[in-house]
Amino acid sequence: MSAEIDPDVPSDDAASRALAQLRANDLGAFVRPAERQYPHQWNWDAALIALGLAPHDPDRARHEVRALLRGAWADGMVPHILYHLGPSDYRPAPSFWRTEGRHPAGLPTSGLSQPPILASCLLRMHDDASERDRPAWRAFLDETFDAVLAWHRWWHRDRDPAQRGLVALLHPWESGTDDAPRFADALARVEPRPVPDFERADRVHVAAAERPSDDDYARFVHLIGVYRELAWRPKAIFAAAPFRVLDPFLNAILQRADADLARIARLLGRPADELDAWQDATRHAYARLWNDETGTFDAWDDRAGTRLGSSGIASFAALWGRLADRRQATRLHDALDDPTGYAPPAGGALLATTRFDDPAFAPRRYWRGPVWIVTNWMAADGFDAAGYPGAAARLRRDALELTERHGFWEHYDPRDGTPGGASGFSWSAALSLVLRRGTKAVTA
Ligand code: 9WN
Predict the structure, then answer these.
(1) Residue 277: which H helix or E strand, with range?
(2) Looking at residue 282, what is its pLDDT?
(3) Which end of the chain is more exposed for a tag (fewer CB within 10 A), N or C?
(4) How far is the CA of 293 from the centre of ligand 1 (A)?
(5) Strands (E), 207-308
C-alpha cells in the first residue's frame, strides 16, 4: 500500500493512510511494529503507536499501553518484546530467552528492556486530549502510574546500583538503536561464543545490507546467552555483563520520562520527590558525557572505562532530555548546517543517524546512517525547546515529506530519501500523525 502514496494528496488523506496502516498492523492483542518483520509487541513502539492513535481512537491507544504493561516483571522491568500470540518466524523465539519464572504467567517476554519513552507519551496523550476525553486520560494516568514508576525505579536501582546518576545498557537492543556505531568499540571487546539454538531470520523480509552485520548479530545473541545462564538475576547480569554502556540516548529518554512522570505525579496529587531526585542526579552525571572537542555527548564504555566515539543521533537526544545547555545546543545546531555533519545534499533529508563524514556512516544500514522518523520527532521537539524553531520545522517537514512521498518505512536514505528496512512500519505512521498535529498547531 505504501507505494500508492502520492506526495501531492492533501494531508487529511495522508492522515487516513497513516490510520489505515495502523489498522492493518492491528492484531487485536496489540499493534505489530511492522507488517511482516516484527510480529510481536515491542516496548517503545507500543508507546509511540498509542501516542499516534490517542486522539483518533483513545480506547485503542489505552488498550495498547495496557497490553504493554501486562508484560511487566515482578521487579518492575517492562520487557522489550512481548510474545502475546506465541512463537512466529521472528527470532529470538520466546523460548530462546529462558525467562520462565520471571515473565508474567502466560505471557513470554524477552529479558531486556527498551527506551522508557512511555511516561512522556502518556503525558502528551493526556495534555493533547479534547476536553471531553481528558477525564478518561486522567483516570488512565492514575491507573498506569504505579507500573510506570516501578519501571523507572527498576532502571535507577538495577541499572545504576552504585547510584552514579546514569543507568547502564547491558545490550545494544536496550537502546532501541541496535547497531549504532557508538557501540562498535564496546561490542568489539565482546568475544562471542556460538549459540547453538539460534539462527538469524531477520533477512527474509528485509535486505541483508539494511540489517545489522553478522559480527554484530553474533554478539547480540551471545549476550543473551550469557544473561540467560544467569537466570536474568539483575545483580548477577550487571556484574558479569561483557557489554555495559552508559548511553546518552537512553539516559536522555529516561530523564525526560522522569520529568514527565513527575508532572503526572503532581497532576494526580502524588509525591514526586523521588522523581525529582533522579533528575538532579542525572543532570549532574550527564554533563560529564559532553565532549567539547567534537561537540557531542558521548557514550561511556563502563567495562573498559573509556569514552566511545561516533555519537551520532545520540547527542541530539540531550535536547529531548533538556540536558544540553545553551552553548551545547548551539554546537548541535551548527552540525545540522554542516555538509560534513548532517546537512543533506539537495534531494536528501535530515536527520541521518550518523554524521556524513563518520567512517562508520552507512546510508542504508539500519542505525548506521538512515533517517528514522522517531529521532526526527525527538530532535525537533528538542530544538524547539532550545530556541531553534527553524531547525525544528525542517526536521518535521523532512520527516513528513519522507512518509508522504514513500509511505511508512522503517527508515530512509539521508542522501535521497529512498526508503529501506521494514515496510508498513507502525511508528512511522503513528508519528506522521503526531507531527502533522504539531505542524497544524504551529501554523494555525
Ligand atoms: C530488536 C521493533 C524494533 C524497534 C527497535 C529496532 C528493531 C529489533 C530487531 O525493531 O529492533 O529489538 O529485531 O532488529 O532497532 O528500535 O523497537 O520495531
Answers:
(1) helix 273-286
(2) 98
(3) C
(4) 32
(5) 245-246, 290-291, 296-297, 300-301, 306-307
pLDDT tens digits along 158-170 = 999 999 999 999 9
State the DSSP H helix or E strand holding residue 248, giving kind and residue range, or none if neither.
helix 248-268
pLDDT at 440: 57
Residues whose beta carbon lies within 6 Å of some atom of ligand 1: 33, 38, 42, 44-45, 80, 173, 176, 178, 202
The alpha carbon of 258 and the centre of ligand 1 are apart by a number of angstroms equal to 23
Taking CA atoms only, the protein residue closest to ligand 1 atom 6 is 176
Among 40, 121, 173, residue to substitute to test ligand 1 (most atoms within 8 Å of Cβ): 173
Closest atom of ligand 1 to 212 CA is 14
CA of residue 173 to ligand 1 center, whole Å? 7
Specify the pLDDT at position 444: 31
User: pTM value?
Assistant: 0.96
pLDDT at 9: 52
Closest atom, ligand 1, to C-alpha of 427: 18
Angle at 95 between CA 94 and CA 100, to 5 degrees: 95
Residue 277 Cα to ligand 1 middle (Å): 31
Low-confidence ranges of the chain (pLDDT < 50): 1-7, 441-444
**Sign of CA pseudo-dihedral 437, 349, 383, 322:** positive
Length of the chain: 444
The three cell numbers of residue 256 are 525526560
> What's the confidence (pLDDT) of residue 130?
96
* 27 residue type, one letter: L
Residue whose CA lies nearest to ligand 1 atom number 8:
173
- Cβ(1)–Cβ(424) below 8 Å: yes
The secondary element (H helix, E strand) that includes residue 344 is none
Distance of CA 432 to the CA centre of its chain: 16
